[in-house]
């Protein structure tokens, strides 16, 4: 069973107990140069205001979404049916289906009266120390400062060959096997989109802390916790209208959302959430 299969089974159980809102809209960031790292996420909005995010800078996903070349037909669509495509879709279709799944997760959280704890720790509460060997899956440039300041050893696994090599205080590699000796790992949630989660986790068996972070990490965490992820850090949208206006104009969205974090000891589990949502 894959993460996607487990995740959709949980969302289906929620839908079996409670009618879901339909899709209101797909919101896209403006087309911008990929290297700018702006406009990284799209949003699927449900008719109850629930919003789910998904990363759009893999390959030419954003351009294809803007061209509408895959015939969306999303307005008024059954949110669960769109989300179910996450199990088998690829490319832009998978991006949309993941965002729809995350929107349903937010709907469940709200109906259950559950909100993840706020988090001001951008590096997943890993508390880097000098004797740590930290792995980073995807180069998080804004996070480098805190890790390097701790004097921990740092290896970054990247897909971009031009980033590989020795840098000031850290090493970038294309070979995920170099994560094998890391005792702490922080990862982008893009692993869920490109379906490399299990592959990467297999290289991190010695890691006692595996944090997955990013705005699109808005999924139910159960299937991640059972696979060895210890923290899921995402964005909790606090101002729907402001967030959408900022996203679609290419402006910063941070003042319309807050960082949040889920760990197994602070999360009640998807079954409990569904029970709360029924009351």
From TrEMBL:
Superkingdom of origin organism: Bacteria
InterPro entries according to UniProt: DUF364, DUF4213
Start and end residues of each DUF4213 domain: 41-105
Domain Putative heavy-metal chelation, residue spans: 126-262
Entry-linked Pfam families: DUF364, DUF4213
Protein name: Heavy-metal chelation domain-containing protein
